[in-house]
Design brief:
With 390 residues, the chain is of the alpha/beta class. The protein is built from 14 helices and 16 strands.
Length: 390
C-alpha cells in the first residue's frame, strides 16, 4: 500500500508539472507590473458588450460612422470635431467619441466644442470619456478606452487624431473608396498630409499619401513609418492602393475589426511602435490594408503648439519603469510573436506571425528591412502600384 500511494503521488506531481509547463509555453510569463495593470483595467473599464446606445437615433437608413478621437490637452480637438461635422455630406450619420485627457484647469473639449459650434453643435452625437492628464498613459490606452466605453456598435469606425481637418463630403468619399474594393475585410489607412493655418486660411497638400517603413527608432528599436505623397497622382477613378502597413491617425474600417481586435490596455506610455503592433494584430486577424487614392483628411504634424503625454514618463520614475516594461514586451511581440495568444483569440487568428514578417518586409529581431518595405509596396505589387509609389 505505501508503494502504491507513493507511485500515485509521483504520478499526480508529474501531471501537474506537465500542465504547468504547457500553460507557460502557451501564454508566456507575465511581465513586471501586469498584475497591477489588470487590477487597474478592471476598475477603469467595467465589462460591457457592444450594444447599441439608447440615446442615439436608430432610424437612420445610412451606414453610420463612429469617429474615435484620443486627445491629450489638445486645444485643436474641438475644431477637429466641428470640422468633421461641418464637412460631412450626411452629418446625421456621424457619431464621435473623445477621450479627453486634461488638467483640472483646462477647459474640456466638450465645453470648447459647444462654444465653437454654438447652435450647430451636435450634442447627442458626441460622447466623452474624461480623466486627469497627469494619469495619461499614451494613445493606446486612450484608444482602448474609447473602444470599450464610447463605441456603440456603429457599422463603421474612423480612427483619427485630435488635430485634423477634412475635405468636403469626406464621409461619402470614405464609403466610395471602401466600397470600390468589394472586400469586407478592407481597412483604409494612411498618414494624411500636413496642413497649416495661414491668415485664417488652410494651406495643405493636394496629393494623397501612402505608407512605408523609414527605419528603426534608435531609442526603442521599434519600426517607424512615414507617409510620402504618391509619386504619380492617382486618377479620380483609381481604387485605394494596397499597403503593407497600418496607421492609427487615419483608419476607416468596418465594425468587424473592433469585434475581433481591440487595443491592448497593458502597454502604458507607448507611443512609437503602437501602429506596428496593431498592424500585426489586424493582419493576423485577416484584414487587408489600403491607402486611399483620394485626399480625405489632413493632419497637423508639428507638435510645438500643444503638450505631449510622453513628457510625463520622463519626470516620473514609476511611469518610466512602466514605459520600459511596455517596450520590452512590445519588442518580444514584434520579434517572435510572443503573447499573441493573449492579444487576439485563437479563433480570430487567420494568418501567422511568419506571414506578417514576409508581408511587411520588416524583421524586428534581425533589424532587417526588405526593399519593398522601404518603398511601401506590397509583395504582390503590380506595375501600377510600383508606378504610384515609385
Amino acid at each position: 500500500m505505501p508503494k502504491r500511494g507513493t507511485a500515485l503521488y509521483v504520478s499526480v506531481v508529474i501531471v501537474l508539472a506537465l500542465v504547468t509547463a504547457v500553460f507557460l509555453l502557451w501564454y508566456g510569463s507575465r511581465p513586471d507590473g501586469e498584475d497591477e495593470l489588470d487590477a487597474r483595467n478592471a476598475k477603469m473599464l467595467p465589462t460591457r458588450t457592444l450594444a447599441p446606445s439608447t440615446h442615439r437615433r436608430r432610424d437612420l437608413e445610412e451606414r453610420r460612422i463612429f469617429v474615435s478621437i484620443p486627445s491629450y490637452r489638445d486645444p485643436d480637438c474641438a475644431q477637429t470635431v466641428h470640422d468633421l461635422f461641418e464637412k460631412a455630406k450626411l452629418p446625421n450619420r456621424i457619431f464621435v467619441g473623445v477621450c479627453d485627457q486634461r488638467l483640472p484647469s483646462d477647459e474640456s473639449v466638450q465645453g470648447q466644442y459647444e462654444k465653437l459650434a454654438a447652435k450647430r453643435a451636435r450634442f447627442t452625437q458626441v460622447s466623452y470619456h474624461e480623466f486627469d492628464a497627469r494619469s495619461a498613459e499614451g494613445p493606446m490606452l486612450a484608444r482602448g478606452v474609447i473602444e470599450r466605453t464610447l463605441y456603440a456598435n456603429e457599422e463603421f469606425v474612423l480612427m483619427i487624431d485630435s488635430h485634423m481637418r477634412f475635405v468636403k463630403s469626406w464621409d461619402s468619399l470614405c464609403f466610395q473608396q471602401w466600397d470600390s474594393l468589394a472586400c469586407p475585410r478592407a481597412i483604409l489607412t494612411t498618414y494624411p498630409p500636413d496642413y497649416q493655418i495661414t491668415d485664417r486660411h488652410m494651406v495643405a497638400a493636394t496629393r494623397a499619401t501612402f505608407l512605408r517603413c523609414s527605419g528603426f527608432d534608435p531609442a526603442t528599436s521599434v519600426p517607424l513609418l512615414d507617409g510620402p505623397p504618391f509619386a504619380v497622382a492617382p486618377t479620380k477613378q483609381e481604387k485605394p492602393v494596397p499597403s503593407p502597413f497600418w496607421a492609427a491617425c487615419f483608419s476607416f474600417m468596418p465594425r468587424a475589426v473592433i469585434h475581433k481586435v481591440q487595443f491592448p490596455m497593458d502597454m502604458p506610455h507607448l507611443f512609437f511602435g503602437e501602429e506596428f503592433l496593431m498592424c500585426l494584430l489586424y493582419f493576423v486577424a485577416g484584414f487587408k490594408f489600403y491607402c486611399p487614392s483620394r485626399l480625405i483628411a489632413f493632419h497637423k504634424w508639428t507638435r510645438n503648439d500643444r503638450p505631449t503625454f510622453f513628457h510625463i514618463a520622463q519626470r516620473d520614475a514609476a511611469k518610466a519603469k512602466a514605459r520600459h516594461n511596455a517596450y520590452v514586451r512590445l519588442r518580444r511581440i514584434l520579434s517572435s510573436g510572443t503573447y499573441l495568444s493573449k492579444l487576439i483569440e485563437k479563433r480570430a487568428r487567420i494568418r501567422t506571425f511568419t506571414e506578417f514578417i514576409s508581408w511587411t518586409g520588416v524583421n524586428t529581431k534581425t533589424k532587417q528591412i526588405e526593399p519593398h518595405a522601404t518603398r511601401g509596396i506590397t509583395i504582390l505589387a503590380d506595375e501600377r502600384e510600383k508606378l504610384l509609389k515609385n
